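Figure 2 data, in text form.
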Amino acid sequence: MIVLLQNAQVYAPRYLGRKDIWLVGDKILRVTAPGEYPAGHPLVEIISCDGLTAFPGVIDTHVHITGGGGEQGPASRIPEICAREILQAGVTTICGLLGADRQTRSLKSLLAKAKALECEGISTFIYAGSYEVPPVTFTGDIAEDLLLIDKVIGIGEIAISDYRSSHPSVSDITRIASAAHLGGMISAKAGLTVLHVGDGRAGMLILDRILRSSDLPVKTLLPTHVNRNRELLMQAVRYAKSGGNIDLTSGEKAGIPVAQAIKILLRKGVSSERITISSDAGGSSPDGSVCEISALYEDIISAIRIGIPTELVFSMVTQNAAERIGQSAKKGCIEPGADADILLLDSEYNIQKVIAMGKEM
């Protein structure tokens, strides 16, 4: 059966105008001008998209899918995220990871949860590791994890500038990132090292020292939570303008709201291609506040409402995010051969339909 999304305004995420989108199985077959449908064809199911706009499904690259928290004791543990929460937030691809608690959360549980979400129609990937150094792995070797565990695409979130971290040195992070980069090359995966940046005095300065003292490609490191405070955001400006990628965290606990952070970054001359946004859903602060995955979509729309171009904002959670996780050929776009992950929104940006891997959810 061919599914035809007929007569939608399409952002791929670049604006294409009004188009028909043809789906076969879990893939996009083609994107054509409206009206090419062969009338009466028995193998075509039509979904009318009059008045709707199509975007690629959102990619959330940073989610504690098995829950986080626990910093105020066992009663503060956050439960696992459910598929309904993810899909209602417009997210069709998710990357799971551990945080501060690797004592009561495990990589095995993380992998099992990722596979469970995949059974419910959501594309999933995971990172090995946690806040601590040396990082916890499946096999005892970072590169082997990437090679042998299908869903592992990198290592993280390694904590820096945070009292909850193990205070890694330049050489510690360099060795970890080098192993992840090597594993990425031999497994044809992203090989990304995600760095949790806390409120500590050093901020992102360790990244500058790593890049000055090693031959690591700058794209292998992804600092996240960089909108935590203004000083950190200014460090992120310098890092991004030198070729690095940065990740903003959605929600109220982030410090500088995502929409304002994007505006500052663009005004300071940071290329939009350097910016991604993630939810940190399931994560918590020492004060007990919890990140919600719904905040990611809310912040996307908030950024559009303050005048940041629609295709630019959506590119940060689709095309850019897909590039970071090594999935740009399949995810984050509406084009022939890509996975059929599509959001259909009304004129007020309310989500009307979510299609994940070709299935209406």
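Caption note: The CA atoms of residues 63 and 106 lie 15 Å apart.
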